[in-house]
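Final report, closing paragraph on structural work. Over the funding period we assembled a curated collection of sequence-structure pairs, and we close with a single example.
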Amino acid sequence: MRGVASVLQRGVQSRDVLLSDLVPLLPLAMEFPERAAARIRVGDDEASTPGFRQTSSMLRVDFTTAQGEIGSIEVMYSDSGDGSGSPAFLAEEQAMIHTVAEMLHVDFDRQQAERELRESETRYRELIESARDVIFTIEPDGTFQSLNQSFETILGWSRAEWIGRRFAEIIHPDDRPYAQRMFQTVLDGSLPPVHEIRTVRSSGTYAVCEVTVAPRSVQGQVVAILGIARDISERKALEEQLRRNQRVESIGTLASGIAHDLNNVLAPLLLSLEMLERRSDEKSKATIALLRKGTLRGTAIVKQVLAFARGNEDESYAPQQMRYVIDEVVTLVRQTFPKNIDVLKHVAADLPLIRGDTTQIHQIVMNLCVNARDAMPDGGRLTISVARVAAESGAAVRLTVTDTGCGMTPEVRERIFEPFFTTKGVGKGTGLGLSTVYSIVRNHGATIDVNSAPGKGTEFSITFPAIAETAPEPEIGPEQSLPRGSGERILIVDDEPAILRIAQDALFAYGYIADTAHDGEEASRMVSAHPPGTYALVVTDSQMPRMSGLDSAILMRRHDPALHIVICSGSSVSASPELSPVAYLAKPFNEEELVTLIHRLLHPA
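Its predicted structure, as stored:
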């Protein structure tokens, strides 16, 4: 029996080996071992000692395994050879065989349980290792006990280097106090709510994880903390992007609302500057021309903001010569930047054309220059260079803006193009400058690169694909005069007195008779008080108090169906079919646009 127990205690082994090791022990337990033989069978497996054969006097004991298989132990005595026959089995021998059968039954049950346990553990490990979330256990002293494969996948660390280290070391410093409180809550046996924790990646960046923890207790004492951490960084980024989009939508709504007022401010400025330029001496014309160009730039920016707010792509890109934009920006920068900043310009003579929008390119360069200025509060050197370079698709134009300022850390450099990200103090930056630059660059089919290091300045390089080998110089021809009127009566309707006065003076200067009205109600009364045909044309603002320009235009057209209507607006306008035909004039407009449109409507070709 001792030998049988020893064989069974070896642990899990193949069944054929187990039976082969057990069967020789059975004859040894008989009264006459030299005449005994035995066989053990389980299912399709069997083992027997030499000389075993089935006899009618054989001792047989059956048993079943945990899987329901039938097993049997058979022992026989061979004939003595003297005619006395086989000896009968003693009660002790029978009891011993029954005991061995029971031991086999128990051992097969144990082996089956161990196999199932190992399979369960294997499945558990496979499940843990294949999980996309980080699954971990923490000792009561706060050190990691185990970590699955996702720990390496999500955070980039090796599991081996973190086993035995305190979990707090991998948490963002600002989140550690909260994480420590949650840890203590679990040690006290409670279940804290799901919480968000920022964890350190091996790259130095942070992953936002949604963490669920629970205590593992033995006899009422917490022996470990089990946890699951799900990486929600992408989801948080999408949520943040949604919030930013909502903010941008709000900005768009606000921009649409104030565009009308901004254009009302710019319109009289533009008309006044044109009149001053026409009446000034040569010495003053250069200054007035610069002011006029700045006003036009402001109107273009307002249009660009409105296009961005409406989500429209700019389809007005045309061939551009980068040299002219750089000349304008450098002139403006030298006039407005602090004198302790030395502004250098290097522009190649053989620049090919690029396709783009002048205002947007101007905005790119100005944004980069302003950022460079802010990076050099104590002065420095700002260099703006434009050169012809070779690209995979052919010739290209590379704009480079370099400063000798404070530079950027890798962490800041990684985020500079994110909307609303800024390193400037409250009230000193919106975080929209470089994100706008990036958007414009992408829309132009260009690429942008940045090189910077703390204390070593910053260099932005933008490469635009070229569309022509060389750029022709603009032709300067004789100044063309604008078409003049023949005393036609025009009604100008606007709630801005400055626009009324300047537009009236401009029309008088070109041979028209101009009356004015301050809102739609007054305009409707004036037209209705005269016979049809008195007014040849009405120029009306679209948005005014008391009565809009569109509503008043409908009333005026009912009184005089032949009346020409021009709707002025700083944003898109949808007119009623009742007004058709109708012309539109974008605010702010200049003399040429106003006079040319009126002449075309009154004297169609």
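The CA atoms of residues 133 and 230 lie 5 Å apart. Residues 311-315, 426-431, 474-479 have pLDDT under 50 and may be disordered. We thank the funder for supporting this effort.
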